[in-house]
Amino acid sequence: MITAAASSILPLLQQTQDARREAYRQWSSLMLVMILLAVIVLTSVAFIVARRRGRRRREDQPKRPPLEHVDAWEEAGKRFDGSITEFRDD
Known about the structure:
Blueprint: H1 2-60, H2 72-78
């Protein structure tokens, strides 16, 4: 009699244990997805805020006057040192 009752209860206990295990698996998967989504959202919000702050800083600074075009050969001529001489073997 006891073995018959135990054998009839055992599948029910196994079923509830499997159901609990499945529920825990689904819950842990859901939590993992939610955590990953939260990390992605927080990273993107931080990126957007950083870009906006950088843009504001650039707008607040006074504008620089445009640089004049400088000829590289002309600058090299100004900086030329006359002490450099060419060595000849003749």
